[in-house]
């Protein structure tokens, strides 16, 4: 019964940007012959909390007119891309649903592009090459064709982006990587190169400064050792030459007074005719007596090393694959619940005991996808999947475990990570491995079982930039 009421409003068109609001005056006339109540709402917005009406419900007598103040808002991020929208101002009776009227309200959402760039790690130490992982996010309301570039102050570094260009819809993110190359110094100290990585799409751009530390090809310590060794060799050669000259001078007179022939040596071996006599075993020459014995000292056995648990997967092991969601679909970049993989027997959380100041409350975990690293599990802040990825990840087992293997990735290959196992008797044990190894294994000692494991980089510095990237976890149940 649209004829039972009349609806008009001013202004009759809105133009808003992300995060902006506007007020309308909605005039309602009860054209019926009975007293009615009318409520006002807006249809076509992504959420109901993006509009408000004051008063929420208005009572009007027959032919009476009232005014409602209506506020319409556009969200800061997500939900409404730039462009034209047709909203509806809906006025209806809460008691008689057939008494209603909807008038069209045109809305123009202004473009507000936004681009965010994240880089891990911020400092790379290597030789000729270095690798950085980029995370690009479209935080605006327009699609972006993003190009990547890099520069250095000395113009000595080459940049290889994979890929060099990406296309991002509003509210989406993706990963990329860049390999930097420069000739390292031959000797001396490390070369510290200040780089800038840049992402731009038209007038929109984002930059991040990073550092590339290059080790010299010949380490300073090795060069000093080589110099000292050369000096020692020269001195040893001079001493040996002098000793030989002294010995030769003492043996010459003895040869001149020796008899023409010598009796056979013990054992029946005759001396060489006309040769010099062998030195007497009871009277060695002074030069030979002064020389130390060249025979090596008895070998000393090194202390035994503790054997590491086998990396081979035991029969009956359960696999938790963090490169896929539990339903098998790609994870993308998202914060996840710690119970997402509960069906696999694990509960996930972030360990913030040694977290930097800005990540003390970052107890979330996330699945991320970044360039050649693929998809992995990491620690996360509540603000986004790419925040606070350097904290360790804790895995609690719903039932005690016996054997645990964590497969992981990272950069550079020499970065060390530690797996800390919490045993059922309250004690802890640690196992370390590098990115080059790719996995770390722990097996509970006899009579114990594993209640939880915590995995993160070994660097004790809270501001360290080594990120946590767990590809999968395998474990066997305790017997």
Automatic annotation (TrEMBL):
Residues 261-274, 283-293, 302-314 have a biased composition (Low complexity). Residues 260-314 are annotated as: Disordered. It comes from the Bacteria. This is Uncharacterized protein.
């Amino acid at each position: 019964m649209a004829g039972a009421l009349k609806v008009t409003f001013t202004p009759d068109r809105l133009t808003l940007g992300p995060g902006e609001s506007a007020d309308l005056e909605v005039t309602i006339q009860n054209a019926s012959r009975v007293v009615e109540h009318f409520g006002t709402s807006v249809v076509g917005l992504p959420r109901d909390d993006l509009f408000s009406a004051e008063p929420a419900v208005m009572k009007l007598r027959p032919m009476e007119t009232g005014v409602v103040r209506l506020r319409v808002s556009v969200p800061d991020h997500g939900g409404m891309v730039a462009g034209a929208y047709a909203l509806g101002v809906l006025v209806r009776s809460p008691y008689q649903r057939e008494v209603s009227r909807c008038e069209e309200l045109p809305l123009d959402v202004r473009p507000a592009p936004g681009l965010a760039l994240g880089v891990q790690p911020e400092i790379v130490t290597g030789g000729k090459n270095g690798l950085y992982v980029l995370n690009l996010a479209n935080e605006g309301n327009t699609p972006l064709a993003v190009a990547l570039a890099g520069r250095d102050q000395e113009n000595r570094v080459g940049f290889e982006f994979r890929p060099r260009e990406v296309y991002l819809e509003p509210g989406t993110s993706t990963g990329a990587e860049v390999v930097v190359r420069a000739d390292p110094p031959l000797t001396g100290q490390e070369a510290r190169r200040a780089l800038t990585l840049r992402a731009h799409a038209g007038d929109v751009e984002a930059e991040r400064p990073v550092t590339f530390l290059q080790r010299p090809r010949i380490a300073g310590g090795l060069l000093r050792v080589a110099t000292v060794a050369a000096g020692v060799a020269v001195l040893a050669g001079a001493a040996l030459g002098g000793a030989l000259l002294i010995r030769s001078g003492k043996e010459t007179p003895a040869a001149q007074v020796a008899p023409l022939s010598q009796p056979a040596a013990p054992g029946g071996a005759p001396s060489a005719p006309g040769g010099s006599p062998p030195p007497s075993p009871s009277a060695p020459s002074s030069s030979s007596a002064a020389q130390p014995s060249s025979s090596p000292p008895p070998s000393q056995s090194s202390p035994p090393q503790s054997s590491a648990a086998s990396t081979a997967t035991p029969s009956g092991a359960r696999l938790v694959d963090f490169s896929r969601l539990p339903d098998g679909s790609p994870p993308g970049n998202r914060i996840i619940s710690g119970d997402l993989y509960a069906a696999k027997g694990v509960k996930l959380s972030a360990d913030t005991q040694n977290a930097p100041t800005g990540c003390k409350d970052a107890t979330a975990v996330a699945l991320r996808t970044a360039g050649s690293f693929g998809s992995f599990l990491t620690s996360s802040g509540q603000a986004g999947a790419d925040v606070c990825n350097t904290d360790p990840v804790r895995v609690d087992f719903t039932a005690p475990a016996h054997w645990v293997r964590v497969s992981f990735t990272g950069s550079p290959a020499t970065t060390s990570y530690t797996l800390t196992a919490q045993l059922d008797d309250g004690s802890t044990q640690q196992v370390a491995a590098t990115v080059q190894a790719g996995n770390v294994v722990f097996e509970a000692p006899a009579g114990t079982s594993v209640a939880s494991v915590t995995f993160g980089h070994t660097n004790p510095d809270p501001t360290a930039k080594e990120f946590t990237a767990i590809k999968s976890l395998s474990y066997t149940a305790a017997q």
